[in-house]
Design goal:
Radius of gyration: 20 Å
Shape: globular
Order of helices and strands: HHHEHEEEHEHHHHHHHEHHEH
Largest sheet: 5 strands, parallel
Number of helices: 15
Oligomer: single chain
């Protein structure tokens, strides 16, 4: 019974324990925003591409009130509270439209109401799969959403395993809470992996050898090329993305959809029919919801990728500055 009460407490009050990728950044974001709620809050949702490639720390904190544009039509996106912007990256590896939706519901329940969501479209995550999805870090409060989508039994097997082995699997979390000075520096992964001021990925590489780039690109080919060759928008991915856009409309949250840069080798894995389907789908979302769609796939040179689709630090800097200038119309800081 005691463990059940601990689980209930952690599920609702200490999210950094059971899903540190979400919870650690939530705590940092909450601390930032509570001191400056007059600012316009921009949150990034996306895959590991955006997690590594979108760098809020490069955007000037003393910028003038933000102007948000749709470059394709030069239309100003209506915003609830124009003011100096606060950008935070909540993207995470292994994301999908369903995980975006879960993250948005969690944020709203946790008292974080963004003014603008910058939502990455990761094409492989839109592809129909033969089996249901797996969510690796579900919580009970995700159940109202997850029950409407086909998820594998392993999703709840992971949940049960985590709770039964709570004291062993989350021992470093308990230690960080009770006696953080006892943790070795490398074990404080919540601090080491993300910058608490911006949510961005800390360990992005500066360069990669030709041999390592080839190995990583071949691994990306094995993971994504087969699904891109049989590209078809999955009904559940479409449903989750549209539900997210519906929630944003109801909550008066502006949305920008964007595609992250890809190297020419990765772009070559899309057959013509896949490109047509993707373009038609994004045009339909733009029509149905009035959201701008930013296609940044060709923005960055090939040598600024580690594996054809994850940006190295220089590429991430160039992408973020261009996005700030062309989409957000905010000032970018100098080289860091």
């Amino acid at each position: 019974m005691g463990q059940a009460w601990v689980v209930v407490f952690l599920e609702w009050r200490r999210p950094e324990f059971l899903d540190p990728k979400y919870g650690c950044r939530l705590l940092a974001l909450r601390a930032l925003w509570e001191k400056q709620k007059e600012r316009t809050l921009f949150l990034v949702l996306g895959s590991s591409r955006a997690e590594q490639g979108f760098r809020p720390s490069l955007l000037a904190l003393d910028a003038a009130p933000v102007t948000l544009h749709d470059p394709s039509g030069a239309a100003l996106i209506p915003m609830q509270a124009p003011s100096r912007p606060l950008f935070y990256n909540m993207a995470r590896g292994g994301s999908s439209p369903l995980l975006y939706l879960l993250t948005l519901h969690r944020l709203l329940a946790d008292g974080i109401h963004p003014h603008v969501l910058l939502v990455e479209i990761f094409p492989p995550a839109l592809v129909a799969e033969e089996e249901s999805a797996v969510v690796n870090k579900p919580t009970l409060r995700d159940w109202p959403v997850l029950r409407r989508y086909p998820v594998k039994g392993r999703t709840w097997a992971f949940w049960l395993q985590d709770r039964l082995l709570l004291w062993y699997k989350y021992r470093s979390g308990f230690l960080a809470w009770a006696a953080p000075q006892w943790l070795l520096p490398h074990a404080r992964w919540g601090e080491n992996l993300w910058d608490s001021r911006s949510g961005e990925w800390r360990v992005i590489g500066d360069n990669v050898s030709a041999a390592e780039r080839l190995r990583l690109t071949n691994d990306a080919w094995r993971r994504y090329a087969p699904s891109l060759q049989h590209f078809r928008i999955a009904d559940d991915a479409d449903h989750a993305l549209r539900e997210l856009l519906d929630v944003c409309r109801a909550q008066r949250i502006a949305v920008v959809l964007f595609l992250m840069p890809e190297a020419s080798v990765f772009r070559g894995w899309y057959p013509p029919d896949a490109l047509h389907q993707l373009a038609d789908y994004l045009a339909m979302l733009h029509h149905d919801y009035g959201v701008p769609v930013i296609d940044a796939r060709r923005w960055i040179a090939d040598w600024d990728f580690s594996d054809g689709h994850h940006l190295l630090s220089w590429g991430a800097n160039v992408f973020t500055r261009r996005f700030a200038k062309e989409v957000l119309s905010v000032r970018a800081l100098g080289t860091q």
